[in-house]
Automatic annotation (TrEMBL):
Alphabetic keyword roster: Repeat
A molecular function GO annotation: structural constituent of eye lens
Source organism: Balaeniceps rex
Protein name per the record: EDSP protein
Gene: Edsp_0
A Pfam family hit: Crystall
């Protein structure tokens, strides 16, 4: 079973709650904006700063997190239900899927190649992808979901062709 256990203090201390399905508003369960550590079993979870899966997001793959990057800032949780095996995304140099293209199937640092800061659109064939503004998983980031066809980064992501790093979420091993 896929699950996330969240704790109000670092190092898995204090009050805790376990979830096995999406939680659109942690405040309704008296656990909003208080998560400082967590454990994930199975598929990844996405934690959002705002209720209803909005605002800044953080992805947590299977494992233990004795401290989270932004403690006390999560208001909703979403389980990734998608098939994460054999990921694939196609990047395009220009908006509307035009210009040179690059098919990516694994974590890639674009800073070392032609496509650094030149991607303007994409199509996700398989998997869920984290897209980062800077090399080494740095800067602003967003998620790209299976089947997504994002025609222009500028108005839709405010990335303005500044994609430098991307990686697929890793599948978990549920019990």
């Amino acid at each position: 079973m896929n699950r996330i256990t969240v704790y109000e203090r670092a190092n898995f201390e204090g009050l805790s709650r376990e979830f096995t399905c999406d939680v659109p508003d942690l405040h309704e369960l008296d656990f909003g904006d208080c998560i400082a550590s967590l454990k994930v079993v199975g598929q990844p979870w996405i934690a959002y700063a705002d209720p209803k899966y909005e605002g800044e997001l953080h992805a947590f793959e299977e494992g233990e997190y004795p401290s989270v990057g932004r403690p006390n800032s999560f208001s909703s949780l979403r389980l990734v239900h998608h098939d994460l095996w054999d990921p694939q995304i196609t990047l395009y140099e220009y908006p509307n899927f035009q210009g040179a293209c690059k098919v990516v199937t694994e974590e890639t640092n674009l800073a070392y190649g032609y496509f650094n800061d030149r991607v303007a659109s994409h199509v996700v064939q398989r998997g869920v992808w984290l897209l980062y503004q800077h090399p080494g998983r740095g800067g602003w980031h967003c998620l790209a979901w299976p089947g997504e066809r994002l025609a222009d980064y500028k108005p839709e992501l405010n990335f303005q062709a500044r994609l430098s790093h991307l990686r697929p979420l890793r599948p978990g091993q549920p019990l």
